[in-house]
Design brief:
By secondary structure, this protein is an alpha/beta fold. 33% of the residues lie in helices and 25% in strands. The longest helix is centred in the middle third of the chain and has 22 residues. This is 5-carboxymethyl-2-hydroxymuconate isomerase.
């Protein structure tokens, strides 16, 4: 159950293709065997207000990668690096004129601290 929550400045949000970006991240993680494709979830939260330092034009792209299955530290860091690389690529294509800060936080949450309920979940691949 890796979940990716991305918080983004409003102006930057309008310029990115979120479906394609999330798809690239999901495929990258699943193709490396770090998580099942149907287990990956990404949500994008557009910030109503944001400020980086004192620069009112600066943009932010802050992701939190939340995991519940135990993974070795090197795998968690590789997943985190993959997310950052995909975010970097997406911003680089835009060539924004202003400062953009991109970062990825890692939040490993034990299964005992996580509850889930689903309605009509997709069938597990056979």
């Amino acid at each position: 159950m890796p979940h990716l929550r991305i918080e983004v400045s409003a102006e930057l949000s309008r310029s990115l293709d979120w479906k394609a970006l999330a798809n690239d991240i999901h495929l990258g993680i699943s193709q490396r065997g770090w998580a099942g494709l149907n287990d990956l979830k990404t949500r994008v939260v557009v910030c109503a207000d944001d400020l980086a330092g004192k620069d009112p034009l600066a943009q932010q792209l802050v992701a939190t990668l939340i995991t519940t299955n135990p993974r070795p530290p090197d795998v968690l860091q590789a997943m985190q690096a993959l997310v950052l690389t995909e975010l970097e690529k997406a911003v680089s294509v835009l060539q924004p004129a202003q400062w953009v800060q991109c970062c990825v936080f890692l939040q490993a949450t034990p299964k005992s601290e996580y509850m889930k309920w689903q309605w009509r979940a997709p069938a597990a691949p056979t």
